[in-house]
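Minutes, project huddle
Topic: does the predicted pose make sense with zinc ion bound?
PN asked that the exact inputs be recorded in the minutes so nobody has to dig through chat later. Recorded below.
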Amino acid sequence: MTHVEILKKHNLKATPQRLSILNTLEMYGHVTLEEIEKYTKVNFPTLSLSTIYRNINEMIKKNVVSEVKITNSKDYFEINKEKHAHLICKECGKIEDFKIDTQDIVKNIQSLTNDKIIDATLNFEVICKECLSGK
Ligand SMILES: [Zn+2]
Ligand SMILES: [Zn+2]
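Predicted holo structure (tokens), as shared on screen:
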């Protein structure tokens, strides 16, 4: 699906601003608000941080974009996709997707508690292979 189709499917107008934000997310994977501003500035010099923020929030509400919560870090954003875990490098800060079925883990823990589990966020702190090899 193209970004235009994704936006339409979620009843959002495919404005050039939203498309530019989605392109940035697609290209860089996980980005902060400030980084999105930096990258979208190239094509949209007048796009303000507050406009970007508003657009991102609208896309979060419609499940087009999701927030990546990382302890002691700024919020990152990514295009919504299948549930996955994140590997976060302690040295260089790189965030990598790690495909894992979080549902299995949720089911497992759900069987051990009487609380109702709503959602799970799985982050792993790592030293990435580039940092390990000293590159
Ligand atoms: Zn690293
Ligand atoms: Zn991710």
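Observations noted during the meeting:
- The first strand starts at residue 65 and ends at 68.
- The pocket of zinc ion (ligand 2) is lined by residues 30, 68, 78, 84, 86, 97 (CB under 6 Å).
No decisions taken; revisit at the next huddle.
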